[in-house]
Design brief:
Nucleotidyltransferase, domain 5, alpha/beta, 4 helices, 7 strands
């Protein structure tokens, strides 16, 4: 006597839910563990320099773009508005550092003009932001 066997071979299904969970966990891990350095605001190509120094004092940032637009702490400002801000800084923060971030293609006379406005208003500490020299240019 022969019994009939009812064997069916079913194709297995791959459950993607655990795989997606692992991928999202890895994504979150790498996002949290990596450090991002964002310089918000205006894109300025700084000139290169071999010397670098960082300041820990109270500082104000003036950005001068290639198109001669002036930004004070990431806020667009006119030259007259800059003069007023410099007067306030010179009066209220005598030890503050004013950092000028000028595009490398901007005219030198515009940088000098901003520096003279700062000096006329009693600001003693001025800095010019630069970027490190790339090694390919050193050779």
């Amino acid at each position: 006597m022969r019994f009939k066997t009812k064997l069916k071979i079913e194709a297995g299904r791959l459950d993607l839910t655990p795989l997606i969970d692992v991928v999202f966990l890895l994504l979150i891990f790498f996002m949290l563990s990596s450090s991002f350095i964002f310089q918000p605001g205006i894109k300025v190509k700084l000139p290169e320099s071999d010397v670098s120094e960082t300041k820990k004092e109270k500082s104000f940032e003036i950005i001068l773009t290639q198109e001669n637009l002036i930004f004070f702490n990431s806020e667009r400002i006119s030259i007259e508005g800059l003069k007023r801000k410099m007067k306030i800084i010179g009066r209220n923060f005598p030890e503050a550092v004013v950092i000028i971030k000028a595009d490398e293609n901007t005219r030198h006379k515009n940088v000098v003009r901003i520096m003279s406005i700062a000096k006329m208003n009693g600001i003693k500490k001025l800095g010019i932001a630069t970027r490190p020299v790339e090694e390919s240019h050193e050779k």
